[in-house]
Amino acid sequence: MKHLNIWALLLLLCLGCGNKNKDGQPKQIAIVVSTLNNPWFVFLAESAAEKAKALGYTSKIFDSQNNTALETDHFENAIAAGYDAILFNPTDAEGSVVNATKATDADIPVFCMDREINSRTAATSQILSDSYAACVQLGKLFVGDLDRQGNYAEILGIVSDNNTWNRSKGFHSVVDNFPDLKMVAQQSAEFDRNKAMEVMESILQAHPDIKGVFCGNDAMAMGAYQATVAAGKEDQVKIYGFDGAEDAVNAVKDGKINATAMQFPKLIAEKAATLADAYFKGERNFRKKLPIAVDVVTPKNIDQYIAYGKKN
Amino acid sequence: MAKRGIKYTLLVLVGAVLVYNSVYIKSLQAVKAANKGFDVDGYASNYLFKTIPKSTAAFTDFALLRNTLQANPSEAFDAYSHAPSDGDIRYFMVNGSGVVVSKDSGYVWLEDSAKQSFKLASQYIYGTAARDAAGLVSVDSFDNTMVFNEVSEKINFLIKKQLTPTLQQLAVGDSLRFIGAIELNRKDPVLAETTIIPLHVEKSQKERR
């Protein structure tokens, strides 16, 4: 009989997985982020945690290390541990849909931050930078800076992330109108600074005459800059990034790179936490996709910006 | 013996529950298929050639917009602009008319009855103004933003293919009625420097000025 009770207790525990906190306890928010190997995502996660705390909730940050399987583990753990909401920066537009769906099916709201998942139903709401429109602006700038002619290269982010393609397509929607601007290389460096440096080194060896490089994020832009310095071509190659990270903002100020696009991660993170708060208070009517405007930052307007945002 | 039977039954039951709650299988193909069914070409064509000409309520008279921007820029943006996000870049759908006063490789310059000049794009059609200016296309209607942006590119493609040849054939002195989309920055709304992306153009009787 004693053994029977133990087994029954175990069974009840298993069936009880996913239960929310008891009334009176602070709600828990899981912040699942694609990678903490990039300062931009660290800032995003910490901003979300700060806002959650300010709203009276506890939170924990989970690093998926750009690995969808690890992200799945985090979701399993968050559901099992009874987290009340998940602020989610996905690793993969397609592969992460299942994870968000799993949480939603367990009645845990999911608010995507910055990166998109390809579903209107898997997440409660998705707060996304309008990467495409920003890269149209960057494309216009690029065309003007290169005087509509010359060879150039593009360094892409993670190919399974929609941001990678929204940025690339926005850029090309402008630049491809000018036939004398020729893209001689297009390679992925997976949003990684070191990989971008290696990619740029090989691009410069194969195409020493390039006049510009468009990079899908700031980490890659800084890696590309390091490669141009090593090759002695920092004055020849114009570099464009995307994010508004601290080192890139400083690099624009110092004339090392030509432009970046400010994504406002604090705004995105705070919005996600605020929506979670609204959900806890009974709101159920959320916009499925909530684009956040992105500003192009150049030496002309750099005085208006600081790392990750605008000056107050 | 009976105890052992119960023990194994419970073990199997617990194992089954654990496995059921641990494994979630969903075909990636099924997820991808959900996005591939959307007819971008048909949507863009319907928007440009059927929805826009019928949506006169969404248009702002170009002269009225100019006057309102001069008198009260904030009111002009609040009353007449649209955008999918809440940044400084906003879009306006306008209608108006003018007489061609000059042309170059990328633009047709017109002058309206108030002798104010402005330009229509006749070569380079890009950006999201054509999709966003009327406020009729919502990102919430799309499974992902890539499709939403493909719609914009397809609308631009149709404009370039079917409308810009008319603009390129215009001669100085020709009169034109148009529906067009413009992009303005709330911080620095300079209408004279903006480019109108044409969504509908109609050459009217030629009148040399």
Structure overview:
Chain A: One of its GO terms (cellular component) is cell envelope. Chain A: It is found in: Cell envelope. Chain A: It comes from Olivibacter domesticus. Chain A: Keywords: Signal. Chain A: InterPro entries: Peripla_BP_I (IPR028082), SBP_2_dom (IPR025997). Chain B: Keywords: Lipoprotein. By secondary structure, chain A is an alpha/beta fold. Chain A folds into two domains: about 130 residues, Rossmann fold (3-Layer(aba) Sandwich), CATH 3.40.50.2300; about 140 residues, Response regulator (Rossmann fold, 3-Layer(aba) Sandwich), CATH 3.40.50.2300. Helix content of chain A is about 40%, strand content about 20%. A six-stranded parallel β-sheet of chain A has the order 2-1-3-4-5-11, sandwiched between helices. In chain A, strands 7-6-8-9 form a four-stranded parallel β-sheet, with helices on both faces. In chain A, a hairpin with a 2-residue loop joins strand 13 and strand 14. In chain A, helix 2 runs parallel beside helix 10 and helix 7 packs across helix 8. About 5% of the residues of chain A have low confidence. Chain B has about 210 residues and is of the alpha+beta class. Chain B folds into two domains: about 35 residues; about 170 residues, OB fold (Dihydrolipoamide Acetyltransferase, E2P). Chain B is about 45% helix and about 25% strand. Chain B is built from eight helices and seven strands. Chain B has a five-stranded mixed β-barrel. In chain B, strand 2 and strand 3 form a beta hairpin. The longest helix of chain B is centred in the N-terminal third of the chain and has 21 residues. The N and C termini of chain B lie far apart (about 110 Å). About 5% of the residues of chain B have low confidence.
